[in-house]
């Protein structure tokens, strides 16, 4: 017995996200907050699975994500 699929995969877009899709996702999250990810593709009209929306937000679009080189302090902790 396995997990139910996160979406029905019919009509779901795969591949790179477009800037327009990013704008739609960010504006929806700013208005409604992160949380009910299953409602995101339904309410926004994005042809993406809810898991894809959640991962896009968490890994790329969320405010506060730090990119770039490690600081000297962080390098010291790692080494």
Give me the secondary-structure topology.
Layout: H1 19-32, H2 39-44, H3 50-61, H4 72-78
GO cellular component, one term: nucleus
Domain HTH myb-type: 9-65
GO biological process, one term: response to auxin
What does this structure look like?
The protein is mainly alpha-helical. It has a domain at 16-62: Orthogonal Bundle (Arc Repressor Mutant, subunit A), CATH 1.10.10.60. Helix content is 49%, strand content 0%. The protein contains 4 helices and no strands. The radius of gyration is 16 Å and the shape is extended. The model has no long low-confidence stretch (mean pLDDT 89).
Any key phrases for this structure?
single chain; 79 residues; mainly alpha; Arc Repressor Mutant, subunit A; 4 helices; 0% strand; extended; DNA-binding; DNA binding; Myb_TF_plants; transcription regulation; nucleus
């Amino acid at each position: 017995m396995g997990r139910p699929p996160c979406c029905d995969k019919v009509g779901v877009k795969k591949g790179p996200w477009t800037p327009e899709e990013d704008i739609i996702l960010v504006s929806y999250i700013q208005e409604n907050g992160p949380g009910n990810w299953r409602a995101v593709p339904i309410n926004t009209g994005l042809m993406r699975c809810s898991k894809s929306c959640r991962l896009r937000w968490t890994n790329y679009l969320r405010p506060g994500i730090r990119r770039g080189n490690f600081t000297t302090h962080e390098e010291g902790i790692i080494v």
